[in-house]
Each structure stands twice: as C-alpha cells, then as structure tokens.
Write a structure and sequence with these properties.
Rossmann fold; 7 helices; globular; alpha/beta
Length: 242
C-alpha cells in the first residue's frame, strides 16, 4: 500500500476490503505500508522488493504525490499488479502522461494550476462553485464497462454503480492519446461521459478507479475489483516462484 497517511486507520476500509478479498481467494492478505513521501527513483526497487501487488491509495493534496508517481512507474515497467483508487487513479493517469505520452510537465490542476498538460482537471460545471466540499462529486454514479476489459471480467456485467468522493476528473481532451498509447478508458459515466476507470490491458492487472470500491465491500460480499486484484496478485506470486 503506497500512500502518505502513515496511520493504521487511514486506509482502514481498503485494508478490510483487501482482507475480505483474500478470504474469498482462500488467502490471508499481508499489507505493507510504503510512505510515498520517502520514495525516490533510487530507493523504489528496494522499497517494493518482494511485493506481488501494489495499491496506490487515495487522498488529497500535493504532499507525497511525487513518490506515488515513482511507485507507479516502477510497477508499470515491472508488470506488478497495481490498483489505483481515486487520487491513486489520477496519479496513474499523470505518470502515464509524463513517461509514456512524453508530457514531462503533465499534472492535475489540483497540484499545479498552471500545468500546460492538465490531464486531470476540475469539471467545467463545478468551476463556479467555490466551496471545496460543494464541488465534490459525491454519492453513487452509473458506469458502463467496456466488454472484454479486465474490469468487465471482474464484475461480470456491463452496468455498475459506484460511490464517489472527489472534485477532479480525467480530462477527455487527452483520451484518444491515452488509448492510442495503450491505456484504455474502460469505465465511462453514460450521463457525463466522464472516465471512471482506466486500465492497461497489456499488463497483468493495472487498473485505476475514480470511485472508491472499498466503500461497498463487505465480509459477505467482497468487492469484485478487490477480489480480481488479489487473484492477480496470487497469480503473479506463482509466476515469480515458478
């Protein structure tokens, strides 16, 4: 788990969702916390050594963000199953823009208002709302999954509903470039056309969700994305040890 909140309860719901998914896969999930503020290109291989799957955690603000990009670049280039949640998904998009699309200065408007490549931006209709809480997209939203994608496989259906808690969104102006370079937008809100899920099909399991799947995971009904992620991690472990 790569994040900046070095507290046991900061990612409690994600830990629980991983644990539930582990039980469903007949495994006990062991979670190691890696503080993104301390990650660099020089120490990332050592920090993530032996990790068979990586979760890029949610959060707000600039702190620890560069370390998340370092972790994502490492897992993407080393084909380690990766699951980015909310800000984690946005970081996945930014890292890809910087290191694959070639926009070294790509960023979110949340982190850099003047970025010339605002691959993550605030929604047009939200810009006039100044109260930070008021600009958030909260609650359950529809999402249509692309058939044949890993997330479609995980859910086993095309239409889903998931809970959101964020202000910034994937910028559709860059969508065609992402898709051409290998990152697919596989979950779309049918009403607003906003991108909810990205994945890299060529990798073992590399998925980012704009929503919070951990909110709806329970002991009796573990969330399908966590179940699929843990399954991919188990398979990756077998591949490494083969």
């Amino acid at each position: 788990m790569v994040g900046k909140y070095d507290l046991q309860d900061a990612y409690k719901s994600i830990r629980e969702a991983l644990s539930q998914a582990g039980t469903y896969n007949d495994r006990k999930v062991e979670v190691h916390f890696v503080n993104s503020e301390k990650l660099t290109d020089e120490n990332v291989a050592e920090a993530l050594k032996g990790m068979t799957g990586v979760v890029i955690g949610p959060g707000f603000g600039q702190r620890g963000i560069e370390g998340k990009f370092v972790a994502i670049k490492y897992t993407r280039t080393h084909n380690v199953p990766t699951f980015g949640i909310c800000l984690g998904m946005q970081c996945i998009a930014i890292e890809f823009a910087r290191n694959v699309l070639g926009y070294a200065d790509a960023n979110s408007r949340e982190m850099d208002e003047k970025t010339p490549h605002n691959v993550i931006d605030i929604m047009e209709e939200q810009k006039s709302i100044t109260n930070m809480g008021g600009t958030m997209r909260l609650g359950a939203y529809e999402c249509v999954l692309q058939k044949g994608s890993k997330v479609f496989e995980a859910y086993g259906k095309e239409h889903i509903q998931e809970r959101h808690r964020h202000r910034y969104e994937f910028n559709n102006d860059y969508k065609a470039q992402y898709e051409a370079a290998g990152m697919k937008c596989v979950g779309i809100n049918p009403e607003s056309d906003l991108v909810e899920i990205v994945e890299i099909p060529a990798l073992k399991w590399f998925v980012g969700t704009q929503f919070h799947p951990e909110y709806s995971s329970t002991v009796l009904d573990p969330h399908p994305l966590f179940v699929a992620f843990v399954k991919a991690v188990i398979k990756n472990e077998k591949d490494i040890n083969a």
